[in-house]
Design goal:
The protein is α/β, with parallel strands linked by helices and 494 residues long. The chain has 2 domains: 6-266 and 470-491, Aldehyde Dehydrogenase, Chain A, domain 1, CATH 3.40.605; 271-460, Aldehyde Dehydrogenase, Chain A, domain 2. The protein is 39% helix and 21% strand. The longest helix has 22 residues, at 111-132. The mean pLDDT is 97.
């Protein structure tokens, strides 16, 4: 975490002069209309950024295409790509406080979390894939005498990465780092709510010596710039993190254009199962509260369904409610703030609609709701509903906010049925002291990640992604390189 005091963050915000153009072919340029970036902390316009139309997207893809087809990046020795990515990571470390400030201002994350969690993840990701760049072996399978077979892993081409606003740099790094390490070139489209941190990241890439066209950033709304990338015949691979609805659009865009590969990491309605033999019920309850209220609940993996055994439900839920009511909601630039605002007034309204629907369907509001006592932005108190039934919208639909739905169960089989009873399958957790129960639950849960006696734990060595309508493909780990490489077989008769 950073020890910069509140007043200093305010002074830095007042002096901020962010990049506002697209970053194409190694340089910033204007193009298209301009659009305001509004800070949810107070509704102020931080900057006006260039907003891409088809011409700007074409220019970015053309730059990436030239860089891939004839430029140096794919042709560098892997060790040279490693060195460039490590230089980039060092520059992100140098500018860590500036990047944390940009993230906090544009999407509302408390600045301490932006600095201590998001930027730590970004720097670690760049360094991890840099180190992996020169450690991927090709193959020489054993064949018949008189023949030689070679299987080489080659970069897939131009990668478009379309990322969300909730972790604007982490989600970008999870895609661009393995793609660049593999030798691909990249066009990144950040969310329209959070372009400023991505543009600063691009400036650091150029400073680190990435050649022109290797990494490009275009700003703009998804229905314009995102769609143009999805339909572009010059894009070979598209990686997207966001809503299931938009993920379907990208599959359609690929089908209607060049059948580019589309990798999707989509929504979630993750179950957090607390059994009565949990090693520490208080720790389980505290973690349940932390998980749903961290980042204002704006996480696809957020444990938004608390499934708790009926025999311990009262104790667990009471503690979660107490933790919710103790959280300090406020200015994300204040180091004492534990939960900042939601990303925008429009998203705030969507979350409130979910709360209204939950109350109308008969769920009991234990704490929270729209009244935060803060009028200067889309702030929302941590919210907990119990007496939730599986058919209620609050138990089935992704809210993407600090709203917890509590469901009770009588045995593990019922808990698994409840847990698997949505369209999503991104993450899940189970709390138990019994090793057999942990293994049984993990095998039965339909999710890409299952945590046991913890939540949101892991590192770059393990893959991340979902099943069902939470998407397919994996970020993180060596498995992510599979998305950005092709296997070529060369058969030689000796």
């Amino acid at each position: 975490m950073t020890d910069v005091p509140y007043r200093e963050w305010l002074d830095r915000a007042a002096r901020l002069d962010p990049h506002t153009g697209h970053h194409i072919d190694g340089a910033f340029r204007d193009g298209g209309a301009t659009a305001p970036v509004v800070s949810p902390r107070d509704g102020a316009v931080i900057a006006r950024v260039a907003s891409a139309g088809s011409a700007e997207v074409d220019a970015a893809v053309a730059a990436a295409r030239r860089a891939f087809d004839t430029g140096p990046w794919p042709r560098l020795a892997p060790a040279e790509r490693k060195a460039a990515l490590l230089r980039w990571a060092d520059l992100v470390e140098r500018d860590r406080e500036t990047l944390a400030l940009l993230v906090s201002l544009e999407m509302g994350k408390p600045v301490g979390e932006a600095h201590g969690i998001e930027l730590r993840a970004v720097i670690g990701c760049l360094r991890w894939y840099a180190e992996a760049a020169d450690k991927q072996p090709d193959e020489a399978p054993r064949t018949a005498q008189g023949s030689l077979a070679l299987v080489t892993r080659e970069p897939a081409g131009v990668v478009a990465a379309v990322v969300p606003w909730n972790f604007p740099l982490t989600m970008a790094a999870w895609k661009i780092a393995p793609a660049l390490a593999a030798g691909c070139t990249v066009v990144l489209k950040p969310a329209e709510e959070s372009p400023l941190s991505a543009l600063h990241l691009a400036a650091l890439a150029a400073e680190a010596g990435l050649p022109p066209g290797a990494f490009n950033v275009v700003n703009g709304p998804g229905e314009v710039a995102g769609r143009a990338l999805g339909e572009h015949p010059g894009v070979d691979v598209l990686a997207f993190t966001g809503s299931t609805e938009v993920g379907r659009h990208f599959l359609r865009y690929a089908a209607a254009s060049n059948l580019k590969r589309v990798w999707l990491e989509l929504g979630g309605k993750s179950p957090n199962i607390i059994l009565p033999d949990a090693p520490d019920l208080d720790a389980a309850a505290d973690t349940a509260a932390w998980g749903i209220f961290f980042n204002a609940g704006e996480m696809c993996t957020a444990p938004s369904r608390l499934l708790v055994h009926r025999s311990v439900a009262s104790r667990v839920v009471d503690r979660v409610v107490a933790r919710a009511e103790s959280l300090r909601v406020g200015d994300p630039l204040d180091p004492a703030t534990e939960m900042g605002p939601l990303v925008s007034a429009a998203h705030h309204a969507r979350v409130l609609a979910h709360i209204d629907a939950a109350r109308a369907s008969g769920a009991r509001l234990r704490t929270g709701g729209p009244d935060t006592g803060t009028a200067d932005g889309p702030y929302l108190s941590p919210t907990v509903f119990d007496q939730v039934t599986p058919d209620m919208p609050i138990a089935r639909e992704e809210v993407f906010g600090p709203v917890l739905a509590v469901l009770e169960f009588d045995d593990l089989d019922e808990a698994i049925t409840l847990a698997n009873g949505t369209d999503y399958g991104l993450a899940a957790a189970v709390w138990t002291s019994d090793l057999s129960t942990a293994h049984r639950a993990s095998r039965a849960l339909r999710a890409g990640t299952v945590w046991v006696n913890c939540y949101e734990e892991g590192d770059m060595s393990v893959p991340f992604g979902g099943v069902k309508q939470s998407g397919h493909g994996r970020d993180k780990s060596l498995h992510a390189l599979d998305k950005y490489t092709d296997l070529k077989t060369t058969w030689i008769e000796l």
